[in-house]
Amino acid sequence: MQIVGTITLTTHAHQTTPDGKDGNRNETTKTHIFCQDGTRRRIPFITANSVRGLLRRAAAERVMDALGQPVTRQMFHVLTRGAADRAGIGETPTVAAMTAGNRHVFAGLFGGGPYMLHSRYGIGPLLPLVAWCEHLLHPALKPLAIPLEQLRYKRVDEEGNESYADAPLTTDIILTGKDDLMMGKGENRIANYQESLAAWLEQVQGGRVAKADLKSAKKAAREGVGAKVTQDAEAAGKSSDLNAFNFVEAMLPGTPLQFWLRLKPTSTQAQIGLALIAVRDWANANVLGGASARGFGRFNAQLALYDGDVLVAPTVFRMGDHATAYGFSDDVTPYVDAAQRELDAMTIEDLDTVYPAIGEKKKKAA
Question: Domain spans of the chain?
Answer without folding.
Answer: 2-146+250-354, 180-243
